[in-house]
Task: inverse folding
């Protein structure tokens, strides 16, 4: 118990749409409830390309994990891991190195319960229920401090999660605080939704999320640069997720609505 | 992460051998690549395009096998459909595109492998295959959906259980705190109805039967008539205020009193609407008792238990701050006579006991009237009479107090008879200065003592004013001397025979910064009392010598002598003779040029030593004169024994010369006789206070040697004399 608020647990409210389960629905999953599907369908009605965006964001995650593995990094801290939909980090990473260590963090009870079941028997993957904003709590949690070796490089993944934190809570500072816990050679990956240069429907989608448990705060490229102050960005810098190290033959032309960037510590 | 198992299942490894046409030949690759390119964008796959191509290569081989072997068609077809789902191609569009591609391309692309089967048969098998794929896909999708729904439901339940367990834990902690807290806690709905309260609350409010315990928060607030608290409570309930805090006094059902520090806090629901009230009550009775004790200790004398100086001043100050001009207050300031003797002879132990008993008697004596008796320190006590009816009441009270002390005190085998003196002050209350009042009482006590012990004195402001003035003047004198506030003026002494100025009298003045110029009558007595006359007299003597030297230098033998007043107090100083002589020498003034005046009363009664010093001064050449002769015993015979050479007649004789409308010449006769006798004794006679020509003429006719007075000149700066002496040109 670090702060007084955590003394009293939050209630589980499956009646309210949850972005993690909506995301699963976009990805064709059935790990979701009626309320999630209802809001997801509303969003899809406004912007049918949303499902594609989710898939492209997922592809970015996939590529970043592979990129990290290729650099020899075999530790992953996935903040806001959500519903463990197909192609999750530990699967990709452990395909290459069965001893790769993956610590998932999420604050949503259902996602955590689901992940707990799924990871049962996997000695190298944990799920921790925590709010990624409580950096100290996260870093000192047994599932993280007891699994990852912070003296070795770690790939920190904040994929489609920072846009749930409002400016008032300075997500860039949170990002930087994780940065300061990492050894040289580590990576920090970010994907973040945006409406910059996109059709007005995207803004409407963001509006829709306000009725979910977690509103969305899309950010411009300039705003995202703040996250990487003092960090060396891996080429090509902050780009749409489709343009970040696309696989051969997969080059897309239509933007995903996610900015993606990776920095090297 | 795959569905269910979390792993993507590859049915069998693909033997990618382009050399053989029945396996992964060029047609197989071509078909698989096209297939992958077609469905990959529709999928939710975690596989890359390349992985998808490899994956579909295997599937494509199965398709061909399904057409080749009619016994396997349905089974392999189903497995292909399942495989699509397993590879996350769960989008119905993926099935649609796949079926359409297989229907249009499969027979054509694999015509060489299928050439041994006739067309009709192939078409039939293809139809069967497509149906099997759709069925396999649907079944797998349904299974996956069921499975995932099952999983998410289970996760939901698990999460809820976890949360509920946490909540139970939280509630258990809360219960433990609630039950075990030393602070009384009550929870009420927003209407103020109390829903729960903890044991501490019961304990503090002293009620074990719920029937009696407060049922409403309003009762907590309403027990005192505190309108401000009540309105704060209303604001709290309306959600305009978050907290109400107050220290309150509760009477328990058994009648005992408890002081409680009470805080009522507002608890809001998720939407910010007021929902509950939480009342916290802390028993602060002990703390309060301690505070009260400390407060009492701070305001009371530990020995006698009477109010102390601080409390007395508090009360007095409050009385003085009121505006009712009809209210008067009285102070009886009482001090034991010779209390020090009790302490010194019988010890402080007895002295303290005496004070305690004295305090008791004083308190008893004033209790009925409700006056406050305070111990001001030592053996000083003061009775404060509020609403004083006048000095009569105070005098009566003083008599009563003295009477109360009259009976002997029995202390430790001693019978002590004591007396006390009392100073009384009576004053209008409004606007009085407490410190001044007490000072007045103190001074009046001093008067009472000086008039004899065991009595009282009533303060009179004029008497006080005089004393204050004298006190302040004497206190200021040393500083005034150092700051040059004194100055010397000279008045001529004129030889009546020829009106020549033969001498001057040095007269000291005080240029007081506040009171203005003061004559010697205002401060010389004071200076004699305080002993300041010694340094002041020395200073005047020095000034006179300096002036005498100036005149001597300018006028030589015609220079006037300087007559200087000498106080008998100065003569008591053994060093006076040497001092005067050395000062005169220092200014190079012959003693004959200096006349020392002593008043008649002073010169008649000095000690032998003083007289001896006077003789020595006369022997040294100083002229000794009797000042103000005729105001005392005027014992001429005694003068013979004194080293006196001159006599100054008091101005009353001069006034007496004229004061005679009926031709009565008694005054003139007395004067004549005095002058005559003086001459017989060899004394020069100077008449003081000559104001008219007539007086001067009379005195000259009577043989008086010299005259002094306003007729000739008022005392003035030495320059005036100098001018007078200078030959007129």
Result:
């Amino acid at each position: 118990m670090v702060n007084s608020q955590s003394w009293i647990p939050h209630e589980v409210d499956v009646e309210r749409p949850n972005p993690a389960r909506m995301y699963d629905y976009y990805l064709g999953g059935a790990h979701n409830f009626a309320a999630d599907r209802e809001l997801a369908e509303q969003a899809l009605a406004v912007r049918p390309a949303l499902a594609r965006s989710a898939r492209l964001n997922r592809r970015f995650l996939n590529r970043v994990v592979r990129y990290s593995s290729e650099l020899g990094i075999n530790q992953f801290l996935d903040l806001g891991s959500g519903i463990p939909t197909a192609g999750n980090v530990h699967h990709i990473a452990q395909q290459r190195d069965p001893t790769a260590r993956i610590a998932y963090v999420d604050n949503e009870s259902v996602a955590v319960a689901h992940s707990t079941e799924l990871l049962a028997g996997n000695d190298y993957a944990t799920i921790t229920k925590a709010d990624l904003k409580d950096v100290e709590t996260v870093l000192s949690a047994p599932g993280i401090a007891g699994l990852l070796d912070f003296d070795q490089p770690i790939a920190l993944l904040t994929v489609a999660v920072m846009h749930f934190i409002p400016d008032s809570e300075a997500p860039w500072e949170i990002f930087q605080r994780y940065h300061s816990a990492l050894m040289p050679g580590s990576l920090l990956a970010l994907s973040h939704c945006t409406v910059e240069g996109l059709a007005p429907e995207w803004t409407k989608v963001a509006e829709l999320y306000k009725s979910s448990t977690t509103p969305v705060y899309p950010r411009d490229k300039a705003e995202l640069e703040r996250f990487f102050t003092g960090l060396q960005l891996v080429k090509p810098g902050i780009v749409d997720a489709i343009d970040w190290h696309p696989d051969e033959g997969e080059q897309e032309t239509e933007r995903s609505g996610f900015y993606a960037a990776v920095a090297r510590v | 992460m795959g569905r269910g198992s979390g792993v993507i299942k590859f049915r069998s490894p693909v033997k990618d051998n382009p050399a053989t046409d029945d396996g992964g030949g060029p047609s197989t690759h071509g078909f698989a690549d096209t297939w992958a390119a077609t469905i990959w964008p529709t999928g939710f796959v975690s596989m890359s395009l390349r992985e998808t191509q490899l994956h579909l290569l295997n599937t494509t081989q199965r398709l061909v096998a399904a057409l080749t072997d009619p016994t396997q068609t349905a089974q392999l077809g189903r497995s292909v459909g399942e495989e699509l789902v397993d590879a996350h191609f769960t989008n119905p569009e993926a099935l649609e595109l796949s079926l359409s591609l297989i229907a249009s391309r499969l027979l054509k692309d694999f015509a060489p492998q299928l050439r041994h089967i006739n067309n009709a048969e192939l078409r039939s098998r293809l139809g069967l295959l497509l149906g099997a794929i759709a069925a396999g896909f649907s079944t797998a999708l349904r299974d996956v959906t069921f499975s995932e729904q099952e999983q998410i439901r289970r996760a939901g339940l698990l999460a809820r259980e976890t949360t509920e367990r946490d909540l139970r834990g939280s509630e258990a902690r809360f219960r433990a705190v609630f039950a075990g807290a030393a602070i009384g806690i009550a929870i009420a709905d927003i209407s103020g109805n109390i829903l729960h309260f903890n044991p501490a609350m019961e304990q503090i409010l002293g009620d074990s039967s719920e029937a009696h315990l407060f049922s409403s928060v309003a009762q907590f607030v309403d027990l005192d008539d505190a309108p401000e608290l009540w309105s704060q409570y209303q604001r709290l309930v309306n959600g305009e205020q978050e907290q109400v805090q107050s220290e309150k006094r509760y009477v328990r059902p058994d009648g005992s009193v408890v002081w409680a520090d009470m805080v009522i806090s507002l608890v809001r629901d998720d939407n910010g609407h007021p929902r509950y009230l939480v009342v916290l009550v802390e028993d602060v009775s002990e703390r309060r008792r301690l505070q009260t004790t400390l407060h009492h200790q701070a305001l009371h004398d530990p020995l006698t238990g009477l109010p102390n100086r601080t409390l007395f001043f508090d009360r007095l100050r409050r009385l003085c701050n009121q505006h009712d001009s009809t209210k008067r207050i009285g102070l009886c300031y009482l001090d034991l006579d010779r209390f020090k003797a009790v302490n010194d002879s019988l010890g402080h132990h007895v002295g303290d006991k005496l004070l305690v008993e004295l305090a008791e008697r004083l308190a008893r004596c004033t209790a009925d009237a409700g006056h406050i008796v305070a111990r001001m320190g030592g053996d000083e006590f003061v009775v404060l009479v509020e609403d004083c009816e006048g000095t009569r009441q105070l005098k009566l009270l003083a008599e009563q107090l003295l009477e109360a002390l009259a009976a002997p005190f029995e202390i430790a085998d001693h019978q002590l008879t004591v007396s006390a003196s009392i100073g009384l002050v009576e004053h209008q209350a409004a606007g009085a200065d407490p410190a001044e009042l007490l000072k007045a009482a103190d001074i009046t006590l001093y008067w009472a003592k000086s008039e004899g012990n065991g009595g009282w004195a009533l303060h009179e402001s004029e008497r006080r004013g005089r004393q204050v003035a004298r006190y302040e003047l004497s206190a200021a004198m040393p500083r005034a001397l150092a700051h040059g506030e004194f100055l010397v003026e000279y008045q001529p002494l004129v030889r009546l025979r020829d009106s020549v100025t033969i001498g001057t009298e040095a007269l000291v003045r005080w240029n007081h910064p506040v009171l203005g110029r003061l004559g010697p009558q205002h401060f010389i007595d004071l200076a004699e009392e305080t002993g300041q006359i010694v340094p002041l007299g020395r200073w005047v003597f020095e000034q006179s010598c300096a002036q005498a030297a100036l005149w001597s230098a300018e006028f030589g033998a015609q220079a006037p002598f300087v007559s200087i007043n000498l106080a008998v107090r100065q003569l008591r100083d053994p060093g006076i003779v040497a001092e005067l002589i050395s000062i005169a020498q220092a200014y190079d003034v012959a003693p004959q040029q200096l006349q020392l005046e002593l008043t008649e009363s002073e010169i008649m009664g000095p000690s032998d030593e003083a007289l001896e010093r006077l003789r020595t001064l006369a022997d040294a050449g100083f002229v000794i004169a009797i000042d103000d002769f005729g105001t005392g015993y005027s014992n001429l015979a005694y003068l013979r024994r004194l080293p006196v050479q001159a006599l100054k007649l008091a101005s009353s004789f001069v006034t007496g010369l004229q004061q005679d409308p009926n031709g009565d010449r008694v005054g003139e006769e007395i004067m004549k006789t005095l002058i005559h006798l003086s001459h017989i004794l060899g004394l020069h006679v100077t008449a003081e206070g000559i104001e008219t020509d007539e007086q001067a003429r009379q005195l000259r006719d009577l043989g008086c040697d010299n005259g002094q007075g306003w007729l000739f000149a008022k005392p003035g700066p030495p320059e005036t004399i100098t001018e007078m002496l200078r030959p007129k040109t």
